[in-house]
Specification:
Layout lengths: L6 H17 L2 H8 L5 H9 L18 H13 L7 H14 L2 H13 L4 E4 L1 H4 L6 E5 L2 E9 L6 E5 L5 E5 L5 E6 L8 E10 L1 E2 L3 H37 L1 E2 L2 E2 L4 H30 L4 H26 L11 H13 L4 H9 L1
Parallel strand pairs: 1-4
Antiparallel strand pairs: 2-3, 3-7, 4-5, 5-8, 6-7, 9-10
Helix pairs in contact: 1-4, 4-8, 4-9, 5-6, 5-8, 8-9, 8-10, 8-11, 9-10, 10-11, 10-12
Length: 351
């Protein structure tokens, strides 16, 4: 069977590419990374329908698939787009759709689709809690802490507790303390939530749905890494054609040719892996968590190699803020660890 993207999927990604190319160039990314606001970009991706991708049309969404979300994540990674997506458009709608009650779905999904609410996600209690953290439930209230919350600048959060539960916590809930964390990736807000007898709204069907919710979050982060690595490869090839040394382009030297060829040879097969892993959520749902873990583990290592090698092709310029490669380099590094490192993912699927 020959598998390829549909015309509609290509149109979707082309629309996002055009928007980000025009309105989120490196200068804009740098401004937001330095503390600027991204309200205009968030409004723009809402108009494009990105928060509504995985929400059914009955709740004001577009009703697309996990593969579509991965394709969009790849484009966002290519442009290191400083906008909420993995938590707000992937994890939260999936959690509400699979684990939420009909009342919760009616209350929150239309607001996510319309851009009236942004959801963050704190899953670290189930994906690698550190000493001194973990979320516990007693009488419907949460206590403890969860770190590395995705899409931290949010109106509400999907929170995993240390057992098998998922909860909705409003950003202004009593007993909730929010602390921004400084990570290597400054293109996306990340934070810590501390709960002190904080009221929460449980998702009633969380136990059976968490594996799929987590897997889709991992697949989206992995697709983001693929996009970021592709950008770094493209920039390295362009630089090798333009930079002259000893009277000739450095791309004409065999060593540089080999570096670029090795990056391409390692990266290109991962795109088919993403398509297969993304499509598995609809075609092979029982296999999707395992495939998503393998995809994220593999692309994390390939992305690290590409980021390192592309920087080397640029020589000393690769480390400067003028070129800006470090935004992509650091995004790849952050994605590698978020929701499970390659070592943790392989341990999970082998166990």
């Amino acid at each position: 069977m020959e598998f390829g993207l549909s015309a509609e999927q290509r149109l979707l990604t082309d629309s996002v590419v055009r928007y980000l190319r025009d309105l989120a160039p490196l200068s804009r990314v740098r401004q937001i990374a330095d503390g600027g606001r991204a309200d205009d970009l968030i409004a723009g991706i809402t108009e494009l329908g990105l928060p509504a991708l995985l929400i059914e049309d009955t709740h004001g969404g577009v009703g697309l698939t996990a593969l579509d979300a991965c394709l969009v994540a790849e484009v966002l990674g290519y442009h290191v787009a400083p906008v909420p997506f993995v938590a707000n458009a992937v994890i939260a709608p999936t959690a509400l759709r699979l684990a939420g009650s009909p009342t919760q779905q009616r209350a929150y999904l239309p607001k996510i689709a319309a851009g009236e609410m942004i959801f963050g996600a704190g899953l670290s209690s189930r994906t690698g809690a550190r000493a001194g953290t973990g979320v516990h439930v007693r009488n419907g209230r949460l206590s403890g802490a969860t770190r590395f919350v995705l899409d931290f600048a949010a109106d509400a959060y999907i929170i995993a507790d240390s057992d098998a539960g998922l909860h909705i916590v409003m950003a202004d809930a009593a007993g909730l303390e929010r602390r921004a964390l400084e990570t290597i990736d400054r293109t996306r807000p990340i934070g810590e939530l501390i709960f002190t007898d904080t009221p929460a709204e449980p998702l009633p069907n969380a136990a059976g749905a968490f594996a799929t919710i987590l897997a889709l979050g991992r697949a989206a982060l992995a697709a983001d890494t693929l996009g970021a690595a592709q950008y770094m490869l493209d920039q390295a090839v362009d630089y090798a054609k333009q930079r002259h040394q000893f009277g000739r382009p450095i791309g004409s030297f065999q060593a540089v040719k080999h570096m670029c060829a090795e990056m391409a040879a390692n990266l290109e097969p991962t795109r088919a892996f993403m398509w297969y892993a993304g499509n598995s959520f609809a075609a092979l749902p029982d296999e999707a968590p395992r495939l998503a873990s393998h995809f994220k583990a593999h692309i994390s290592e390939v992305g690290t190699f590409v980021a390192k090698t592309a920087t080397e092709v640029h020589g000393g310029m690769g480390f400067t803020d003028l070129v800006g490669l470090h935004y992509w380099f650091k995004r790849i590094g952050f994605n590698r660890q978020m929701l499970g490192s390659p070592e943790r993912l392989r341990e999970d699927v082998s166990g």
